[in-house]
Task: inverse folding
């Protein structure tokens, strides 16, 4: 069964709305989670690394104030898209690994965000 | 920084036949992990197979096997006895072992079509 749960799976909202996406590790603790963005027919692009108890590490070109990441516990990371606009419409996916380097990353099922 | 290149945007294979998907990467590191992920239309990321760079033996998972050529920095995926359910986007990914980073660097993907 799924080891990483992502919610919601689909969001449609008006421009200017803030949207929160949750990523939970179901049966393990994840000190680090990752947030990716995927445009149609393109690859996954890493947005940021979410670190439990500390600030997230953002990739170059990703607006920290636009994409707020909170990793408040060892099993939950949230991505908030603030004041979303149509250009923020995309597929967002989180992932987490159990701990050591030899453990593969498990992905959530993704969130399709559509901003009208 | 590491880069991953998939030079085949699209591939097709007849059901029950064999197909090979190409992947090359660029790195200055000697130890790392390589992965193949499958993304069906549901957009869920599914781990197909992984290879540790320090292992010379090619990884195999049932009908899926890799040809890992470390010197050439090549990591191709062979799918034998292709099935309709194998149709998906396939991503090659690299993970460094340096520092604490465990994020994946993805290639651009290969869309595989399986013909009945």
Result:
């Amino acid at each position: 069964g799924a080891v990483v749960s992502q919610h919601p799976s689909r969001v449609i909202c008006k421009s200017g709305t803030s949207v929160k996406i949750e990523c939970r590790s179901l049966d393990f603790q994840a000190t680090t989670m990752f947030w990716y963005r995927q445009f149609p027919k393109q690859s996954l692009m890493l947005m940021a690394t979410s670190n439990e108890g500390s600030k997230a590490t953002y990739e170059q070109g990703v607006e920290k104030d636009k994409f707020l990441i909170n990793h408040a516990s060892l099993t939950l990371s949230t991505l908030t898209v603030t004041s979303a606009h149509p250009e923020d419409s995309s597929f967002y996916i989180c992932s987490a690994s159990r701990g050591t380097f030899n453990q593969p990353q498990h992905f959530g099922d993704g969130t399709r965000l559509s901003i009208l | 920084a590491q880069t991953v290149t998939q030079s085949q945007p699209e591939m097709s294979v007849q059901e029950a036949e064999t197909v090979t998907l190409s992947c090359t990467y660029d790195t200055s590191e000697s130890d790392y992990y390589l992965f193949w992920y499958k993304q069906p239309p549901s957009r869920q990321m599914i781990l197909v197979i992984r290879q540790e760079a320090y292992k010379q033996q090619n990884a195999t998972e049932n009908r899926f096997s890799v040809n890992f050529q470390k010197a050439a920095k090549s990591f191709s995926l062979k799918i034998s006895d292709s099935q309709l359910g194998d149709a998906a986007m396939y991503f090659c990914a690299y993970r460094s072992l340096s520092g604490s980073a465990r994020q994946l660097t993805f290639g651009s993907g290969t869309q595989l079509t399986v013909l009945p």
